[in-house]
Amino acid sequence: MTRPVVSVAAVSYLNTIPFLYGIRHSDKLSVRLLLSPPSGCTHAFESHEADIALIPVGGLGRLSEKDFDIVTSWCIGADGPVRTVVMVSDSPLKEIRRVWLDPHSMTSVRLARVLAEKHWKIAPQFADIKDYTELDNAAEGDAFVLIGDKVFDVEGRFSHTWDLSEEWLAMTGLPFVFAVWVARKTVPEEVLDALEDALTQGVERIYEAILESDYADRSYAYEYLTQNIDYFLDGRKRRGLELFKSQTLKAEQR
Predict the structure, then answer these.
(1) How far apart are the first and last CA of the chain?
(2) For 88-140, how does the pLDDT look when each residue is reduced to its tens digit (9 = 90+)?
């Protein structure tokens, strides 16, 4: 019997390499992969380009719950420093007056706003980054929220770095979930079972996934994927996810 071809949207960052490896090596899945920054995955699912997607949790509120389920035992999460979701500045925290937000992730933008209000107790202006060359022209009191692989390029460049996952853990005592797998309710159960198996195989073969990727020559890749990223969507992460959703919902209602 011919397997149904499903469209799968996933993030094109290092942290997704194990998932992509598992999907590409699956003998039970027939997929069309759509790779993009996190915000692009949400758009692909919203526009029905994708049947399954790795959705940033900040984008879940844009989807109708009657149309999708969170699926699989896997996520992009962290129980401590995540390293690739940070706020950087040459000014101390209490002197930050403006925060430039990375447009590639709604989740990190919302997390930064929650931390500013509830944890750091600061009330800066927020603005979207239009051009990453703005990092070269930072004014006094400017900070930048950055996500993804670009963070590796700015490590050590600014006087102060706040890891947003680590700050969330300090505030709540819970890990943070950045993205979860969602599927339309019409996706067959056998496809979801095959996806679960593929993702499991990928997470169990991180070293092989790196060797097969464009990150094979990056000395930090294995440590990052095994020490900073925590893929298993366990009970503590689910509680962290629900807390974040409630915090951002309250903020949007004000």
Answers:
(1) 53
(2) 999 999 999 999 999 888 899 999 999 999 999 999 999 999 988 889 989 99
Rounded Cα distance between 177 and 237, Å, is 6
H or E stretch covering 107:
helix 106-115
pTM: 0.93
In the CATH hierarchy, which top-level class contains the domain 5-79+175-235? alpha beta
Helix (H) or strand (E) holding 208: helix 206-211
* Of 151, 159, 158, 101, residue with least CA distance to 125: 101
Q: Are 198 and 29 in contact (CB under 8 A)?
A: yes
Q: Which residues of 115-145 are buried (b: 16+ CB within 10 A; e: fewer)?
A: bbeeebeeebeeeebeeeeebeebeebbbbb
pLDDT digits (tens, 9 = 90+) for 233-243: 999 999 999 99
Q: Where are the domains of the chain?
A: 5-79+175-235, 85-172
- Per-residue pLDDT for 254 more than 50? no
Q: From CA 17, how far away is CA 13, in angstroms rounded?
A: 7
Written as six digits, the tokens of 202 are 């990928």
* CATH class, range 85-172: alpha beta
Owner of token pair 């900070």: 143
Scan for tokens 């999460």, then name that residue: 77
In this prediction, residue 250 carries a pLDDT of 55
Contacts of 7 (CB under 8 A, 6+ apart): 31, 32, 34, 44, 49, 50, 51, 52
SS3 178: strand
Q: Are 85 and 135 in contact (CB under 8 A)?
A: no
